Amino acid sequence: MNERKLKVLLVEDEQILRENIAQFLELKKFKVIQAKNGLEADYILKKANPDIIICDISMPFMNGIQLLKQVRKNDQYNHIPFIFLTAKAEKEDLRTGMVSGADDYIIKPFTFSELFNSIQKRIERLSQIRNNSHLSNALEGSISLSSEEEHRALSQIETLSKTESKILKKIALGMTSLLISQELNISIRTAENHRHNICKKLNLKGSNSLIKFALKFKSVL
Fold it and tell me: In what order do the strands lie in the sheet with 31-35?
């Protein structure tokens, strides 16, 4: 039985570059869906359900940062790894993109090896997250929070720091402390301390209750 090919949504307005990248990725056994700007990609996204998005920053109609923001605010797509292709002159836009939730960036001109390595890392991370989500879903069925506990926790969301809010969102995606530490470039101990502080602020009793809460209310976090 053939394995399903991973789908890449490639968004690039330079036709020759886009087609060259697509040809390379197809040789690497990816299924590539091409779009020439963010607006076209946003339309395709609703039908294609890609595994990863590779996107230029400067494009007509809808640029890469605008597309990224559309992706990250949609619960159906916000887990999809997003890699920017950027020119050196776009540093300010790049900072905005990374703050908005991009997973990686590659500066033009780049080699296909650089691109492939970045894709591989994002896919491995996504695979780990999905595996941990299965564990989280199993936990969800075995832990119960009362409506009073849920209401109390929701009322305290605003007391979380920016870092704690970011970590809570990643917990909602099924990420462990190890994955969170790698994603945010912090130690595992620091990630665990943040989880402990989140539980304390939200009046949740332990890590399992935190996972249950994050999974149930991830759309409002």
Answer: 31-35, 7-11, 52-56, 82-86, 104-107
